[in-house]
Amino acid sequence: MSEERKRIVVAVTGGSGAAYARRLVRVLLQADCEVHLTMSAAAVQVFAQELKTTINLNEFSPESFLEDEFDSARVDQLKYHRQFEFSAGIASGSFKTDGMAICPCSMGTLGSLANGLSANLTHRAADVHLKEHRKLVLVPRETPLSSIQLENMKRLADAGAVMLPAMPGFYHDPKSIDDLVNFIVVRICDHLGVDTKLMKRWGSEA
Ligand SMILES: Cc1cc2nc3c(=O)[nH]c(=O)nc-3n(C[C@H](O)[C@H](O)[C@H](O)COP(=O)(O)O)c2cc1C
After folding, report:
1. How far is 70 from 66, CA to CA, in rounded Å?
2. CA distance 104 to 141
3. Ligand 1 centroid vs 158 CA: distance in angstroms?
4. 200 pLDDT tier (thresholds 50, 70, 90)
5. What number is the average pLDDT over the span 51-80?
6. Superfamily of segment(s) 7-192
7. How far is the CA of 45 from the centre of ligand 1 (A)?
8. Cβ pair 13, 104 in contact under 8 A
9. Nearest Cα to 111, choosing from 15, 38, 47?
10. DSSP tag of 80
11. 193 near 187, Cβ under 8 Å?
C-alpha cells in the first residue's frame, strides 16, 4: 500500500439499496482507495432482486459485483473476504484502516452491532472500528422504524458510529435514480474523508 492510499472496509448486508453498494465501491476504487469488501448471504439475494446480478460468495468475482462499473485497472485495489473469514486483517484492531461503511445496513446487522454479537466478519470488523475509535458509517434502510430499531441506532450513534440512513434529498434537482444513489454515496465518502467529484454541492458553484 502506498503512503497516501486510504484503506476502507465496505460491508454489504441485506438491506434494500444494492445500487448504493456497487456505486460506493466503484467510487472508492476510482479515488485510489484500497477497498476491503465483505458481503452477507442476504445481500446476495438483494443484488439478485434489485440489480439482476448473481454473486457467488465463495468464488467472488469483482466483474459480477461491479458489472458496468467494473474497471480492470483498479481490480488489484479490491480485496474480498468471506463472512466467516475471521482470520482476515479487518477482524483485528492491529490492521490499520481509514474507516468502514456498512452499506446498506440491514436492521438485523444493526441489532447485532448494537449488542456486540460479532457473529460474522461484518459484525467483527465494525466492532473493531468502534473499539479503536475509528470511523464507522452505517447506512440503514427501513421504514417505518420500531422503537427497538431506533434504540439500536441511538446506541450505535452514542458508541461513535455515524448514522447515515439511505434517505436521499431532493433539493439538488435529481434527474435520475443515479443522481439519488450518488447523493448518498457522496455523503458516505465525505464521512470517510474520501474526495469525490460525483455531484454539485449545495451552496457551491462547482
Ligand atoms: C429483496 C430484499 C430486500 C430487503 N430489504 C431490507 C431492508 O430494506 N431493510 C432491512 O433491514 N432488511 C431488508 N431485508 C431483509 C434482510 O435481508 C434480512 O433481515 C437478513 O437477515 C439480513 O441479514 P444480514 O444483515 O446478514 O445481511 C431484505 C431482504 C430482501 C431479500
Report:
1. 5
2. 7
3. 24
4. low
5. 95
6. Flavin prenyltransferase-like (3.40.50.1950)
7. 9
8. yes
9. 15
10. E
11. no
